[in-house]
Design goal:
By secondary structure, the protein is of the alpha/beta class. It folds into two domains: 68 residues, Orthogonal Bundle (Arc Repressor Mutant, subunit A), CATH 1.10.10.10; 187 residues, Rossmann fold (3-Layer(aba) Sandwich). The chain contains nine helices and 17 strands. α6 links the parallel β5 and β6.
Amino acid sequence: MNIGSRSAVLRRRLKIADWIRQHGQMRVDELSEALAVSTVTIRADLNYLEEQGLLVRSFGKAIAAKVSHPRERPSGEPLGKSLAMPMLRLASRIIEADHVLLIGHGELPMQIIPLLAEIQGLSLILAALEAVPLARHLLDARIHLLGGEIGPDSCSLEGSQALRSLEFYPLTHFLMQAEMLSSEAGLLLASKAAERFCTAACRRAARRIVLVERPALSLERRLSEIPLTLLTDAIFPTSPSTRSRGVLAATGFVLLAAEPGAAAHFSRLHLQTGAAPGAPP
């Protein structure tokens, strides 16, 4: 399937999901007639949307999923501690002595700071003002704050000066946050500023780790997203959906570790005995 065909399929599925959300339920034949495609095509679309937690199939029709479904956590709502901490533990195991770690924008990456206290010789580069007091209080490490303008959240440092600041640091690791993985193997970010920053940081760091807030695959396309292939490691709060695992596998990611009943760590670094930590894939 070429890019144009994939985009048409995504647009149709988004439209179906939106209609069912508005009307509560719709029949397969109604959708087939309205979209001028076969019932076989509609059933395939509904199977996909059901897997993403957007609807429920029932006797020739599709019913909108309840708001309480775990995949329907409102966008922007922070992960609870029970989901966030296993992700952060997996991420902290990647960081070793004498590494230079850049902690990107967002609340989730900043929460790793207490888990870094035992790492000797660590250098920490911060991209958010509110992370400074926490790092100074908890860590015996070299702590640096990027330059740049203060973003709309009154905390993040961004803009051209922040991007130039990255050039002064020999980054070994970069930790970032993304909302979801898209079916086009992109990572959905909060803003264009975040996209520019993360792209620049990924080009500087040897190992690039993303904390993905949601395990389902997104049907959304955004201007603010970066290719999954820019990252070496992806950590999810729970086991990703079947579709998400398919996208991960297609881009070279394999499951490395999982916290019991919780977070899952996928990596493109197919480590071999004697491989250097942080070595590019």
